[in-house]
Each structure stands twice: as C-alpha cells, then as structure tokens.
Sequence to fold (296 residues):
Amino acid sequence: MTAMTANALARRNPLDAVFAGPVGSFDAYVDAVSRIPVLSREDEQALARRLRNDDDLDAARQLVLSHLRFVVHIARGYGGYGLPMGDLVQEGNVGLMKAVKRFDPEIGVRLVSFAVHWIRAEIHEYVLRNWRLVKIATTKAQRKLFFNLRRYKRNLGWLSREETQNVARELGVSEGEVTEMERRLSSRDLSYDPAPDHDEEEESYSPSAYLPAPDADPAVAVERDEWDEDTSERVAKAMQQLDPRSQAILRARWMGDSKATLHELAAEYGVSAERIRQIEASAIAKLRKLAAPEAA
Fold:
C-alpha cells in the first residue's frame, strides 16, 4: 500500500490509519496514532458503558485506539534500556487492553488515568524479562530499585555514600540493596562458552576461560601418577603368583590388543568354553585378592 493511499485513509477514517502504514515502520505507526482524535469524557463514558453492559467489541476497539498515543508516550520513557521501542509499545498496548476490559465508567476517573498502571506494569515485565539474560530483579524491593536507581543517580559514576543513603531512605530499602543493584546494573552478560564466531575480546573474558583444569593441582597429578604406578606394580607381582595357564588366559582375554574369545581359547587348550570361563573367573578373583593394598 502506498503512502498516498495511507494518507487518504487517515483523512477519511483515522482509526484505519493505524493499520495503513508500511509494515515494520514505527514512525508511520506513531504518525497514525497521533492523528486519532482524543475522546471527550462523555464519549469515553458512553463507550465504556456499551462495553460493560453489552459486550460491544466495537466500543472496546474505539477506546483502545483512541489511547494508543498515550502508550507511545509512556513507552518512550523506557528507551534507555536498549530494547526496541516497537516492542515496548506493543507490550504497553497489551496493558491498555487489559485496562479497557476492567475500566468502570462509574468511578469518575478518565480511562487514561486508570490505564497508566496497567501499561507500565506490562512494560516493566517486558523490560525485566528481556534486558538481561540473567534476571537481576526478582523481589519487590529489587524491582523498585531497578526502575528508580537511574533516576536518582546524578552522574555516570558510582553513587557516593551520601547518595546511597538518600536513595535507600527514599525507596525504603537497605543501603546494601542499593549497592548490590548498582553493581548489577553496571555489569553485562557474558556467554559462558562463546561460539567460534564471537569476537576474541568476549571469548577471552568468558567464564569458561577461568575454570581450573581437572589436573591443574600438581599435588593431585603426582598422587594420581603414584597411585597408577603402585597399582601396576602390585598387579604385575600378583600375576606372577598365578599358574602359567591362568596367566596366559588373562593376558589373552584382557591385556592384548585384541581380546580372544572363550571359544578360541577352548580350542587352543582342548577344553570347553565353560571351563575357560571358570578358569578366568577364578584367576580374576585370586588377582584381586593378591593385588589388594593390604596384601602388598
């Protein structure tokens, strides 16, 4: 649809202009909603009564569309979090629709005053879910700090002791909570194990680069080597105490490059495969007993 057609629709019916702009153009959306007339108190209450009493969806549509400009205004206040403005507005629109559904015209307040809470609540949830991969605000006090700390900071540096005390007093939280939230806001997410196509700077500071290797402790490595050497010596001495046939069967079954089968050994020694299995089991039991540390 051309811009000329969209403008024509806007002049004829401002409500349709919201959907007439180019897909993905946030500026066109803002321009369209700004041209939707603001409802008078009388019209707003009449539409709200139609929605409440008759479930009139067209009345709900008009209430929502006439307040979209206010959602844009509120969403612009959250532009400092680095999230797409279109997504912030979309979440705010969800809050607006919830407010319209719950609005009671008999209370005597305008819809915009009632809807502010719902719009901000949806935007807050979106910001907390998407600003960081790791949640940084889970309790009520942390959420309050998250959305107010930037406003209280006078400069880009860290808060002074006096500023920390003032923020804690005004928000009703402890000084430790203020300092902890300031630290979280100043940090950034890092990939635990960056993909090969990530930049070298991020990869060099990833948490996986600072994990100790399993064999990093020299004492552990020496102890493991000594244990392996001692075990090998005890097994070798224990093997010498077995009869020659048992030794040969164990070496053929477990110590060669390729394991001989029971049937191959049975043919070699002229006995049954079951007899080879019995000799093997008996030899292993003796080997374990002879190679045990207590027997060494």
